[in-house]
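Working notes for the structural subgroup meeting. M.R. asked for a predicted model of this chain before we commit to crystallization trials. I am recording the input and output together here so anyone reviewing the notebook later can reproduce the run.

Input as submitted:
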Amino acid sequence: MAKLIVSDLDVKDKKVLIRVDFNVPIKDGVIGDDNRIVAALPTIQYVIDHGGKAILLSHLGRIKTEEDKAKLSLRPVAERLSELLKKPVTFVPATRGKELEDAIANLKDGDVLVMENTRFEDLDGKKESKNDPELGKYWASLGDLFVNDAFGTAHRSHASNVGISSNMPQAAAGFLMEKEIKFLGDAVENPKHPFVAILGGAKVSDKIGVISNLINKADKIIVGGGMTYTFYAAKGLTVGKSLVETDKIDLAKQIMAEAGDKLVLPVDNVVATEFANDAPHKVVEGNIPDGYMALDIGPKAIADFKAVLADAKTVVWNGPMGVFEMPNYAKGTLEIGKALGDLTDATTIIGGGDSTAAAKQLGIAPKITHISTGGGASLEYLEGKELPGIAAITNK
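Returned structure, recorded in token form:
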């Protein structure tokens, strides 16, 4: 279903509320990675270039105490945005009230305003996170139009996305949201075959929905990372001290029966005596000996996975192949990343989170077709779930 896009709106002379995802790492007032701010620029630029007044809302971190407010103000973000847009940006240290309303009333066409962290409203009964109806209505009253460009929170029903949408005659997607819907939607609903999903990470329970949804759509599902060993246990292999979700073994058996040879597990692993980079480690095939835990896929598994990827036309990757933050167990993740970067005629999609960090570390990010800005949201999208933030955008 095609969604209304910001470029379908007449924004001239209008106050345009834009929900962006400026949830960036900040330490002592310094932004560690401004990627999410940069990703929002095309939508903001479109609105101001076409004579609209851009009023930006975003959350930042989690607000549980008054002390959190001091550390998690959006002021540094507004300052960085001003540098990127090369123009002044008004920052209002409030989420409601006269100061905010006056600042909005004083905006001229082409101006940009950032209001304070929407989660400051969570201190008093989680009004933002629980989608308080009165708050959504109030925020909607501050603008004429609403654009949701925050894919990272699309799987949450908050006052600043769903709440505002439901109090506006229509809601449009920003360009970033449009791109996420296009690439993830096409991958799940209309992929070019062979379609390969690479799923890693610690727990089977996090990825069950994705595996179940993709069994009938993907040609191969490669499994790596900690969740591998629940499947090992389901196959009757010994797993030593490896991570296993014992309550998911029966489910893993069921998935293996249903998926058949579509499911590709690592045949060998790098195992260590402790969860430490410098612990004694070695490569073993099949059974994992007592006293050892698997912390990465082995060289044969890497070769197998690369062979599966060689002729792929659509690839979705979510989750590392091992403990890639430790150099001795990073090889599986990095080799798979490299193989993805080498696929020149395939649509390659990385689903946020740790896989994104790996892509950046490798320098393959420019070669990837699409890197999602929302880990949790992209996972739920791949599960085939309807995301409230996207459902609330008006259909064309």
